[in-house]
What does this fold into?
Amino acid sequence: MANSMNVHEMIKDKRQKSRRHKLEKAIPFLLFLAASVSVVTTVGILLTLIVETVMFFSEVSFREFFLSTEMSPLNPSNPTFSILPLLSATLLSTIIAMLVAIPIGLSTAVYLSEYATDRARRVLKPMVEVLAGIPTIVYGFFAFTFVTPVLREIIPILDRTNILSPGIVMGIMIIPMVASLSEDALSAVPNQMREGAMAFGATKFEATVKIVIPAAISGIIASFVLGISRAIGETMIVTIASGSTKNLTFDITQSMQTMTAYIVEVTSGDAGAGTTAYYSLYAVAITLFIFTLSMNMLAKYISKRYREVY
Amino acid sequence: MEYIDQKDIQKRMPKRLAVNKIVRGIFFASTVFGLVVLAILLYDVISDAYGWLTWDFLTSVMSFDPANAGIIGAISGTLWLMMIVGPFTMIIGVASAIYLEEYAKRGRLQTFIETNISNLAGVPSIVFGLLGLTVFVRILGFGSVVLAGGLTMSLLVLPIVIVAAQEALRAVPSYLREASFGMGATKWQTVRNVVLPAALPSILTGMILAMSRAIGETAPLIALGIPALLIPLPSSVFDSFTVLPVQIYYWTIDAALEAEYLFLAAATIIVLLVILFILNSTAILIRNKFQKRF
It folds into this structure.
């Protein structure tokens, strides 16, 4: 073939090949740059949070932030900073949410994986998952304008903004997540185990509780932990429906502010850059970040470490 | 046979079967619980919005007077936001996925990037808002404009796009790649002409789901300082803007001052839900119609 090519053509061919070669070399590098965007994002998050948090703790002591009980960052004469009121609100709303999401989510998972016919599952599962696609702002509206008034009919001492109603609604939002992850874990349990239990005369319920759930327990617990992480980080529902009172209390009928709602209040408020209130934002955010990150890693660890292999 | 007390078993059987039946009912009720709440939620929103969701409402600019207020500003702001989020996440997300699936050597670096992406997916959205506020609004000095909002939202939904694209690429069977190599194609030619077209429907499905997440997110944009009151519509990426969820947020809060704002918020929610419904159905349609089975 080479003999039939004149010199001119050979040069052209060689040039084309080297250009193609350069492109082949450049592409992986460009793709790597794109992939590093997500790493840069993480570094960016860590840097912003850490730098400004250091600024915050140069003005406010650890002791005040973690041990005092008063939080009034915008008080002009004597601003105080304590994360405890925000923590109590976050903790309460998360507990309430999980009290709703865990039993209902797990029951849904058991029904879909153990009891439902194929046809029922095909209809019900996507319908339950619609709940996860609803924007949190819509849930916030629902908690504030519907759930709270209804609850106030039952519990008259409930504040107009309170932690109970957003907690419940947050739980409803998390149901599909717990249900779908737990269902995955349950369906991964091999059928022989169910059949074995039933061959010994167990009812479906006994087989589920004594054999299937224990076999899937790591995946189920991981789904709970991820649900907790989601509840800690959820923002709009609590911002709208739980109010902005920085209250260190465990009374769920009162108005309280969570960590996420505090971040929204300070960023959308008048705390100018450089004030202590502004820096406190980052100290709260890094606490939130550490909580959710450790929950997510814990979930991953549980599902990996305790996965039963069949 | 004497190990088994037949009589005892016979006696306990009806109770055990009854328990099974009862819990089956409870489990079913739990499954339906979510759907009931969904129905109540929709009923609540629709009854609040009834009469307020008019053509004038969709096409008017924002106003303090509830009777004249409209959401054309929020609708156009949402479209502007998507014009940043769409191309940015598509290019960066798909390129990241191609790198991780086709080019990266299996090893520490790849594991590190993948772990990083899955951790990023679990970071609360408000933290992304703080990142955007610090980096785009303050340090780079964009202000609370479309560009800052779009980039923040892009970073937020990027993990969704990358993971979806990775799964799509992984589903392309290796014999297609091998056939392409066998024909003398280079790596990049194979990726561009064979692998990407085969994975495109699933990638698009993931893209649309990421977009609908970005359209519904509120917290990061509020942290960026996106206003609710916007009279002139944005005409470039350096203009300030507002979006539907932010509009809903401020109207819901302001309902304490003027009760009519509540109805405006409900009407805006319906518009938002209709947009999300259309996007999600499109994603499902693409998945069902165009996804080839290899």
